[in-house]
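ok so for the tutorial part 2 we go from a plain amino acid sequence to predicted structure tokens. step 1 is just haveing the sequence, like this:
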Amino acid sequence: MALNRDDKSPLFSPGVAGTLRLIVYLALACVLMVLDHRGGWLGNVRYALSLAVEPVYRIAGLPSQGFHAATVAFADRQALTEANQRLREDLLLANAKLNRMASVAEQNQRLKELLDTQHSLSLNVQLARLIGVDLGTFRHRIVLNVGARDNVHVGQVVIDARGVMGQIVEVMPTTSTAMLITDPNHAIPVTIERTGLRTVAYGSRAGDMLTLPNIPVSADVQVGDKLVTSGLGGRFPTGFPVGEIRDVAQTPSGTFLSAQARPAADLDRSEDVLLLHDLAESAGPPPPAPAVGPPADLAPDPNAPVAPTLPSVTSPTATPVPAHAASSGAQP
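step 2 — the prediction. this is what the tokens look like for a chain of 332 residues:
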């Protein structure tokens, strides 16, 4: 925009007085610059003036600084929130993997125990997995993932790595139902391992205990005694662990002892079980012993040729002479 020449400026006025004032001002400015350059005496003045002017600069820059700080804080908060969310997801995923690994390790341990049981007992067994439970006041049963298509039949014994769990009571095409030994309608013949006493263990409504109500008063039964299957009835093979005596008390009538036993099998934790295919030992007298004969290496071979037998020859014997004849012959 061009300057208006008509305006009256006292500094740039066309008169002589205005020119002299301009020259004086320029000379004063040059003197001040020289003095400041050589002596530096205006530095203190600038320092004092800067103290007075600095708050003005800060106040003028507050809006820009506040906007920048707000932007940075929002960006940092968003970044921290996203990073925190990612870390939480990673932590949850790591915990899930860790729990899964622990579960798989525990499952492998149970499968190893089942395999060791199979090898140690040399049994013909079938592995099955638990897929459902039916636990109530009057029913303690489990559902397995094998059925008639897998040659499962009613009456098969179900065991785990620690002991007897129950027996198959219902078979479907692809699934089967097993009654646990703690079912109120279940009974299993057992033997007290320490003394050899035979009795029967019944299920109870408690769901986790076995009841032995008919123990003779004179029987030697103690807490901690082990119960094993006796084999009576031909259903459960002999020698499988059943439980452990936890309490012994006399019945109200006083004629019997009643005991409570905890099952040996992990009824509430087992996920993999074994179904026995071996037939139970038949009840009755043992089979007759085989006939005893001479050792095979000393017995004659029936296929060997028979040697011909020769007639026996008897040697001639002298005829005895009477004593009186001998004596008469000796006389002249």
